Amino acid sequence: MADRGQKISLWVLAWPIFIELFLQFLLGAADTLMVSRISDDAVAVVGFSNQLFQAVTTLLVTVASGAGILIAQKLGARQVGDARTIGIMSVSVSAVIGLVLSVNLYVWPTEIAALLKLPDTLLPLAQTYISIVGGGMVLVALMSALSTAIRNTGNTKGPMYIAIGMNVVHVILNYGFIFGALGFPKWGLLGVAISTVVCRLLAAIVLFIMFLFTFEHRIAIKDFKTFNGKLFKEILRIGWPLGVNTSCWVFTQLLIYSFIALLGAGELAARTYMNTLESFCFMLGYSIALAVQIQIAHLFGAGKIKEAYGTAYRALWIGLVVVTVNALVIYLFGSRLLGLFTPNKDIIAIGVSLLGMNLLLQPGKMLNMALGNSLNAVGDTRFTMWSSIFSMWLLATALAYWVGIELGWGLIGIYACMIFDEYVRGIMSLFRWRGRKYLRLAEQREADKAASVVPGIRKPAAPGV
């Protein structure tokens, strides 16, 4: 980005993010498809474990996401040195947090799975998968911090290329370990876990090298000792509400998975297969939401407030069209797609019902993501935090348990409450964005700044002077 103050095209930002997310989706789909050749129980363990991994990485969001927004804002304001320092600190702190998470997941995998009510029959598989993949969580921490910093400079292509390489290697290793092909031992779920860690290690190394050359001045290893207390407070000011927000999402999702586990391994497997298909719709919307967050943060930092305000609505309408069309296509071909994963007719029937409900879910999710990320981009992260605390815990979790378990509506009832939660948070974000609280404050700051630098203009003298 030659000129940090110029508006970055939404399309230029979004399509590499989409491809990166699409490749991550393929990686997950390949995991699920290949693991389904082992057993439905193995699929249930992978789906359950991935929810757990998302939950334990929420601490990383506090630093990585807060740093990403600040990097974009600082670059928009042409404060390149501060942006560089923020990126370095985010990587260092995230690595320490990730290491702590890795140790805990490696030491207590079975105990954690049992605490979250995973069926006893699945605990041996969970012990293998969680200890290995969870033990490599420090790599996820590094990848998150590095890719977020790189992406928020406007370079969304770099992480995309790395995702391509990671995806190819992962599929090859999975194929070898699951089927005993290409000279690999036939290790089943153990091999899938090893494949995941190896791919993440390679991706983290390449991202780290790319990060060293991301800013105008090359980053040296000694620079990772850098710590700026003032800038770190800025990161936490924006980041800690984001951390709480994401914590609400992943922990409520983890609880919802534990509710589904109470219904049985079949329902858990159906939800995992459904997640794989739903991810395609989600990543389309999320790529647009991430792109508009970067775009608005740059515009906000550059003082282009009115342009930032209108950009959110443009991204929202584009996103609504895209996710709705894709949800419809997936629903129409749902039974065939689910048949690729399992021959179990009961699981397929449940999955098709959920895909029908997905037609209602995706527009609400897009509304929530587009406007929620827009609020985050201007620093209004506390609002999204409080709306998440209210809606996710009350509607998506407590109400889901009552409707799905107590009233006996099962997986359909749980999913209906998740849809209700998305629309409530989306509508709250819409009214907040229309109120323009943070945008008006920024406009006033820009007006004051402009008045103070106009030559020949003096402030009125105080009375009596």
From TrEMBL:
Q: Give me the segments passing through the membrane.
A: 12-32, 52-73, 85-108, 128-149, 161-184, 190-215, 235-263, 283-303, 315-334, 346-362, 383-403, 409-431
Q: Where in the cell is it found?
A: Cell membrane
Alphabetized, the UniProt keywords read: Cell membrane, Membrane, Transmembrane, Transmembrane helix, Transport
Alphabetized InterPro entries for the sequence: MATE_fam, MdtK-like, YsiQ
Pfam families per record: MatE
The membrane topology of this protein is: Multi-pass membrane protein
* CDD domains (alphabetical): MATE_like_8
Q: Report whether Transmembrane helix shows up as a keyword of the record.
A: yes
Please tell me where this protein is predominantly located. Answer: membrane
Instruction: Report the protein name in the record.
Output: MATE family efflux protein
Q: Which organism is it from?
A: Paenibacillus harenae
